[in-house]
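Appendix B: complex inputs.
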Amino acid sequence: MTTGAPIVVESVSKRYETPSGPVPAVETVSLTVRPREFVSLLGPSGCGKSTLLAMIGGLVPPDAGRILIEGTPISGPTPSKVALVFQDPGLFPWRTALDNVGFGLELTGVGAARRREIALSLLEPMGLKGFESKYPRELSGGMRQRVAIARALALDTPILLMDEPFGALDEQTRLLMGEWLVEVRHRTQRTIVFVTHSLHEAIALSDRIAVMTARPGRIKDVVEVPLPYPRALDGPDAVALHAKLWAQIREESLRAMEGRR
Amino acid sequence: MRIWLWRLGLLLIALTLWEAVARMLNPILYVGPSRLPGALARVLATRDLPPLPGHVWLTVGEIAAAYVLAVAGGLWVGFLLGLRRTVGRIYEPLLATLYAVPSVVWYPSLMLFFGLGPASKIAFGFLLGFFPVTLAVLAGIRQVPATLVTVAVSMGARPWTVFRKVMLPAMASTMVGGLRTGLALSVVGVLVGELLGARAGLGYVINYAYGLMMTAEYAALVVLVAAAVLLLDGAGALIEARVKQWAG
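Resulting structure:
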């Protein structure tokens, strides 16, 4: 049944050791992501959604369960298949936009001329033409994040994992970046897992939304979003979906808040 | 440009004050700037003083040796303590304690161990230069943004690649600051060593002039050393600014 699924998460658990004892972050989560699907992990802060994403990316080993990328269990990063984008763009300040985008290619031994060609072909449709020789400090927040996404796309992996990539941006930039990501996604045909705590963002972008519980993170429900693009978030279907998700997540957010006290 | 004018003005004021004060006091003990050029000429002609070039080269050589050792040792210990966390946890308090002790107290032991020759000066220059380099490496490692390392690891970078392509550039500005301080302190170490007891070197000549009450020559030598150190540190500052600009 899972043949051909780019990502399979099988009863995965993770806990963190803290001075006051172990804290369960993710508890027996299972999830199958279909080819070219956009799945959002939605949940209150601290629910383990970033931990789950880091495990899919091979950055954090699960304590129990396993993760299969294109049918193969992983034990570390799989840069040939999976690329990651984080909330902090994490651009190298000593590299130009162009050289940042070329970083992953450099690691795999792609020559300078080819790197430049690939990087330019990615930066141009992102509205970054003319900015290729700028350093990160000379770019706006939205531009930086686009460079970071271009750097991930440059690896040409079938899977893209994004951990609240627009979380640090202002509301307007965030909306525009969302529209832009929808376009990128349809152009590049990636399978995307996207972590967010924003209901609007999840509804605007996803094919399916996995709602997570407060710590320890479990998947509470997986909701299909059968809306056509471009999506109007004030349409009746979107509003109904928002209400449904909010009902689910409200409870969890309350629990997260209580737990925080 | 304006700032340079201000600096020049300040320098002139300082020289004038110095001259005025020196003229009011005993000319054997107090040397005004107006007497420096003559003294400098005498020093360079090595009249009444040991021949300067040989001593200068000896001191330069000692500083170079001390600094090379300080950089090598500082980088090695810094990376060892910074990258091997267990080792770091064991030895870092020791390092901090040693650093807190005024280094001059070690010098008599160094003379006992290494004699009056260049070795004890090199050892003292090394000791003084070693700490800032080590501490800068440790600080540099700590301030490498974790995200940058994560990004590289997620793209399949091996530890050595992470070190070379992420950590080193990310640490560059902090490290170059420490390397600059280390150089300044290596110079101090060698000169102080020579002043406290030596048979050759620039510090020895300074001491010699001082001992014979050749105060003008003594002052001229001090000004010469100050100018050399200023030039050296200026070059260091330029390099540091360049690296900082590059490393963002």
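The two ends of chain A are 43 Å apart (CA to CA).
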